[in-house]
Amino acid sequence: MRDETSKQKGMAIHNEARGFMDTLIVTENVSKVFNPGMPDEMKAITDVSLEINKGEFVVLKGPSGSGKTSLLGLIGCMSRPTAGRILINGRDVAKLPERFLTMIRRKEFGFIFQQFNLIKGVSVLENVMLPLFPTDAMISDIKNRAEGILEKLNILHKKDFKVQRLSGGEQQRVAISRALINEPEAVLADEPTAHLDTKLSEDLIRIMQELNQEGKTIIIASHDPLVYEKPFINKLVEMRDGIVKEVTAR
Amino acid sequence: MILHPGIISLIVGSLVVTAMMVYSSLLGLTILRKWNINSSSAEQLALERKTYLISTIMNSVLGFEIFSSFLFIYTVEDMHRIFVGAMCATGSLNANPVGWYVLYTKIVIFFVASVWIAFNYIDQRADDYPLVKKKYAMLVFITPIVALDAYLQLKYFLGLKPDIITSCCGALFSESGHGVASSLSSLPIKPMMALFYAAIALFLLNTFFALRSQRPMFRYALPLSALLVFTVSIAAIISFVSSYFYEIPTHHCPFDILQSNYYFVGFPLYTTLFCGVFFGLMTGMVEPFKKIQSLRDMIIKLQKKWALFSIILIVLFTLIASWPIVFSSFTLEGYF
Amino acid sequence: MERHKKILEYTLSSLFRRRYKNLALIAVFGIVVTVLSSILFLTHSLKSEALYVLDGSPELIVQKVSGGRNDLIPLDYMRRIQVIPGIGHVVPRYWGYYYDSLTGGNYTILGIDQDVKELKLLDGRVPTGNGECALGKGVSDARFAGIGGELVLTDSRGMAVSSRVVGVFTSESDLLANDLILINKDEVRSLFGMPPDKATDLDVGVYNTSEVSNIAQKIKRLLPDTRPITKNEIIRTYDTVFNWRSGMILTMFFGAIIAFCILAWDKATGLSADEKQEIGILKAIGWETSDILEMKFWEGVIISLTAFLTGIIIAYAHVYFFGAFLLAPALMGWSVLFPPFRLMPYLDLYQITVLLFLTVIPYVASTIIPAWKSAITDPDVIMRG
To answer: A44 φ, ψ to 5°?
Structure first.
């Protein structure tokens, strides 16, 4: 317990020294239980308290079943915790109705999924634009923004291709572009290197690093050493069996 | 019973809608009992998801009721030849007077369902669902009205016998008849016109002040003046507006203006009236909800929007109603 | 507003991506609509035509009844009816049915005199004297007798009577004219062997149409063995019969409508894995439940409206260009040997509204709950899976 407190204190001083003033995400004693009271009840996360500041590069490390994916989902406002509080920019989102959760998610977060989850049969450009379809933005504005992002990631030339015709690396860049369309505060990635070879993995991590240097908060859940052994990580959160074992800050 | 395609559709449709309303009410009751916004349990989440279902059903119910109101009027119009003495929809309705109550019920449902949908809209935009209890309690009251509509409609159609001799609007709305309708038709024109335009002016003034003034009393008064303007307008339509469209002083039927030979002018006329009254009504009805913190700012904005809509729509209504009075060469003045 | 536009656009492209499945659905729906609308179009047309015809018929027809059956009416009765106040004209009518063993059809033979009011749908002219006739299109075709041709009929004594065809009713003419043969009044009498002091029935006109029922009653009291029939009664009877007939068939068709709703429900509930995943992805990337519900709503509307319009167009062609060959026997109750005729297209808003009620609305309604079930997918479902 004392180690925890001193570690957190150390973290706070560290952050101050780095000049980070804004806390983006705070979780307080958050738990998530799937199918409660039923035979297939599963405790994904138990009593997790965590702080993530703006501009940090955070990695949630742990084997499968450790709860890191569930934690990522909770932080990214994709689901609601069974207990505890989650503060995004100081606002408790744990009990918000779906509509408001989605609004916050749309404003703050961009998501990259393990399987990319691009919609087959739909073009690259449209896939990237989709997250903003249910908003009142003009389609031409969204299109311009999307093309800008695609260009930055060197995939603009394939914007009208159907996504299933792209290579793994190209799909990866489309998935990243989609996560950036709403100009989020933070980019969350769930096991992004799971299906990639070393080169593509390094490419992805490099892109993440560049985004971080531009000021975006990055949170990656991964059990790939290529990811969690990188020196520029600000915060390494080790998880096992749904609990946070250790938080290392750099 | 008369086996007419329109009748079959209406009866089956109303039964289906009643079933949907009962289902919604039962769901609503569950929500009323178990709702707890502060809980994160799976049951609470399931309840929240159910609210979407009820919203969708209620939107469909409203859409259906509006549609079926027009279908009802058209069916009744289509059937008029079966009844001796009937020359239009009014005659068919007179063949079994329950028919008039069906119409009244449909009008009530329109307003009540629209109000519910508006409340639902507001409730969903606050992050703590402040109106949940009121909303679903209200649902339990709307359901009997929908069921009543289905029942009355069935009773009306079942009670129609082809050999009934009925009177048409010429008799119903004639000066020599008895009853409200003929009293309305036989009112002297000039005072009626004066009353109509006075009511409109009063309503517009009320809405204008509700929009501009800080004092809540104007907004509280709005539902009353909305209902007043509604009643007076319907009376005016029967009394003289319709006659101006028909250019026949004895033709007071409020339904024929929905027909093609009058260029369907009844549609914009009634639409602007009903919607204008509705928005006026809503502006006033949400005033008490300003006490709820999470709703306050949103309601202030919505009230402004709705009051504006109401003004525009009622002005349009007045223009449409006044058009033949001003522009056609026909005049009723010599007749009364 | 932008939002709705974009969601609609996405729905369209999504439907297109699964076009084969959706086309099948539209086809099934379309067939249901086609059958239903054929029924409604046909009955409405027949009804409208009948009413149109009846509009020009006499206010009051007086027939003599003998032993419960129609009998020829003595011309003497005319004098007695004429004195009733309110009566305008009393004119005897000479007409009857003729069974043509050659073609197996029944024709209506109508006797006219010189001052016939309106025969605007006649090519050629009205017969002026004996030995001339004007034919309905159906008779003309069946007997291969056009203008200038000859029509041979058999009279009550078995003798052949020949007349020259001087006019043929146009094919756009109404039901009644199709089987009509117009000849001179006197020729009707000799054809049917009618005694000189009798007529088939009497055409009675009244000055004030709202007094018709009263006058009919007076006639009945005065001449107890007559049956006065008012135009309104005929109209009401036709109206009721057509309503009844179409209502009956619709009721029979109810089974089909219900089966169709079950199909719609099943299709909506049984989403393919692909569709489920797509919704999961949309929820994950920021679409709300209400957005998905809206998308499902547009889906339902697009499919049902497309099917509806297609169904109506096909039904229209079926009824008005192909004479409703599939439905006619059931609805019109005539023998198949009867000469065909062309129906006049009558299409009005009311019919369309009823059709919408019977088809599009049940479809959208039966997809509400399945749509909702798919829309409430948790956003994190695709992360877990």
So the answer is: -80, -45
Instruction: Give pLDDT tens digits for A175-210.
Output: 999 999 999 999 999 998 888 889 889 989 999 999
Say yes or no: B140 and B238 in one domain: no
For chain C, list the strands marked E by DSSP.
Answer: 60-66, 69-71, 73-74, 87-93, 95-100, 105-112, 122-124, 132-135, 150-154, 160-169, 180-184, 198-199, 201-206, 226-230
Same domain? For B144 and B5 the reply is: yes
Is the domain of B22 the same as that of B123?
A: yes
A16-22 LR contacts (CB < 8 Å, sep 24+): A20/A53, A20/A54, A20/A55, A20/A56, A22/A53, A22/A54, A22/A89
Total of domains in chain B: 2
- Report yes or no on whether pTM surpasses 0.80: no
State how far the Cα of B55 lies from the Cα of B49, in Å rounded to an integer: 10
Tokens of C182: 């117009």
One domain for residues B156 and B220: no
Using CA atoms, how far apart are residues C343 and C323, in angstroms rounded to an integer?
A: 7
Architecture of domain A2-249: 3-Layer(aba) Sandwich (3.40)
- CB contact A207 to C (< 8 Å): no
Distance CA C150, CA C162 (A): 7
Domain coverage including residue B20: 1-167
Phi/psi-derived region of residue A84, left when phi > 0, alpha when psi is between -120 and 50, beta in every other case: left
Task: Tell me the per-residue pLDDT of C229-265, one tens digit each, with 9 for 90 and over.
Answer: 888 777 777 777 777 766 777 776 777 777 777 777 7
| Residue ranges of chain C whose CB lies within 8 Å of a chain B CB | 40, 51, 213, 232, 235-236, 239-240, 243-244, 246-248, 250-251, 289-290, 293, 348-350, 353-354, 356-358, 361-362, 364-365, 368-369, 371-372, 375-376
B161/B246 same-domain check: no
B-chain residues within 8 Å CB-CB of C350?
Answer: 6, 74-75, 77-78
* C94 has a chain A CB within 8 A of its CB: no
Indicate if B94 and B150 belong to the same structural domain.
Answer: yes
Residue after which a domain boundary falls, among B109, B135, B167: B167
Question: Do B214 and B319 fall into the same domain?
Answer: yes
Do B186 and B121 lie in one domain? The reply is no
User: Which band of pLDDT confidence, cut at 50, 70 and 90, is reported for residue A11?
Assistant: low
Residue spans per domain, chain A: 2-249
Distance of CA B228 to the CA centre of its chain: 14
